[in-house]
# Entry
Amino acid sequence: MRKITTLIGVFALTSMLLVACAPAATTAPPATEPATTEAPATEPPATEPPATEAAAEAATATPAAAQNTSVPVAGGERLQAVLDRGNLICGVHGSFQGFGFLDTNGAWSGFDVDFCRAWAAALFNDADAVEFVSVNAQDRFTALQAGQFDVLSRNSTWTFTRDAELGLTFGPVTFYDGQAIMARKDIVSDASVGLDALEGANICVQSGTTTELNLADQFRAAGVSYEPVVFAEQTEAFQAYEEGRCDAVTSDRSQLATQGQAVLSNFDDHVILDLVMSKEPLAPAVVQGDEKWADVVHWVVYGMIEAEEHGITSENVDDFLTSEDPVIRRLLGVEGELGSKLGLSNDFVYRAIKLVGNYGEVFERNLGPFGLTRGQNDLWTNGGLMYAPPFR
Amino acid sequence: MSLPPFLRNVRVLQLLAQILFVLLLALAAGFLYANVTTNLARQGLTVGYDFITNPASFDIGESYISYEASDSYGRALLVGLVNTLVVSALGIILTTVVGVIAGIARLSSNWLISRIAAAYVGVIRNTPLIIQLAFWYFGIILKLPPVREAVALPGSIFLTQRGMYLPGFEPTPAFNFWRIYIWIALASLAIIWFMLRLIQNRSELPLPLWAYLAYIVVPILILWVGFVTQPEPPLKANLPVLTGLNFRGGLRLTPEFAALLFGLVVYTGAFIAEVVRAGIQAVSRGQVEAARSLGFTGAQALHLIIFPQALRVIIPPLTSQYLNLAKNSSLAIAIGYPDLFSIAGTVINQTGATIEVIVIMMLSYLSMSLFTSLLMNIYNSRMRLVER
# Structure
């Protein structure tokens, strides 16, 4: 008996060591996983796109043999794999009011979610050809690397380390955010106080976020002592703050405003400090090394920004099809072959705008109800930071 | 068609089957290994432990060893490991007490006591631990009054939703002199033990009770000499005082630690209660009857006859429960206690070194469990029925 246990122990140890000390590369066949989820047959796009081009056939490729599971695919093949599968798998938050959550009707909703829908619309002319995977802050990048979803659209901050070290490519910034602190009104008199007002405070924070680092950095720099209470989920951090476990809670300003209103029983008792603790550009991310797929993710978002700049909305987009402006004609795929260069239909921007809306519409629809103003996220023409490279 | 003779040999067949099994295992391990390396290589990721010496840059709420944000990732993981060890060790001790009491109570002839114990086991054993943890944390402890309305108990003990604050002690400058007296006192205890044993070995009769008083009298005498010669006591009280937003000073039991410890103890205790009950019922009734007819009281019978025999049945499943408790402590992250799993998660997220950190975690939990098993196995072999 003892021999057997020793043997098993030794075996377990060696196998773990083997995995741990893995050298760079060996010649082995690429991993293929069997489909693990059920494969509902996705309907081919019902409506014929208004400006049919040759490349559209790529989008309508039969999804009959499609696997409904995202699998790791070699560089440059993700786009084809998604088209073959017939739907997009999108990693989202799941319980972040305004950004990625299930609404009261059980439908996925939110700012980040709408970008998933926009990509699906551009790819399949069907904004609902998306499977949403809810993922927590800790696991999101690992899950993306493992290929559990095609694109991560989950209020993720684009940072140097994540870009360079985690093997990710971040898309265009969809929301310029910054870390802030929310505290009870009975502790901080007004929003303009500095960190010293929080000397010795308990601060609730979510683990695995840049927030955790910024918090440590800022307090260290200011020489103010504090005690972090770290939770796996933002919801729990808010709940503990609400219960009074912490004097303050920290997160991105957008999150404090939206989650704060959704979770806290009396939002007026709390104040969000003016202090900006960091730059938090939130952007979608894809696995590094697949430029074609990254381009698709990038240019659909740019298309939505560009459309807003020209005043094209989901309601009036059809009127613009007859526009004489060559810039608009190219953007909507009436003229030129921009889409096919990405491996998409030429009218991919039209589809995204028609079915989901332009950047401004997505912003107002999801974040307007929380009283978030455009601020830095306004178009560059209005003094904001939203700027799309030219479509030509 | 008949098989060649050597294939009809049972021993050869058994050996072949074993070889085949090992080969299959090796193949599976090889496949997993190749899968990991190729996928990592394709994503341009490298595996290595270089990150471990880099500064962690995040803070940890509670720690038994000194730690600050500028310390390394390795140090941060060590803090997590120590936090896990502390909660597991305390949990194992307390849950044994709870479990044994509940297990005996379940067999009590007192209707109320046995019903209460049955209800405890029934409710706790049949609900998920994570829900119980959330209940203790969000439902009970965080509902305590806020810091400024703290419940003040006698002896400078404060009960708040930020935890329990107790008076602590801190060494005074005289502590170094005192250390000598303390060592002498401890040494005297060893000498007394040795001498008493020597005397006992020479005489047939047991030592009179007053001989044992030496254990108390001698150290007190030594410490009294200390009080006379030294002007300052070795320790002074460090009382918790409300300063600013929170209490400062004294000892503190954080709500996260309390909820986790309480949750683990109550949960595992219910399982241990059943193990203990099974062990006691495994001892044949004749043993109790024999004990009672020899004039043992109920408590004596339990203590001297039943329990020693029941232990042989109890120890192996008890070991599993101890291991479960230690491993279940990784649910700490749900209620914000910085255990190994929680800190490892943060480290993974900051460094991207998923595989490396998971290996560290697995090795830590594995060695923790193996060490616990080893201790319990030694104890078990001592408790085994010695056949003559």
Q: What stands out?
A: Chain B touches chain A through 59 residues (CB under 8 Å). Residues 5-42 of chain B form one domain. The longest strand of chain B covers residues 157-160. The radius of gyration of chain B is 28 Å.
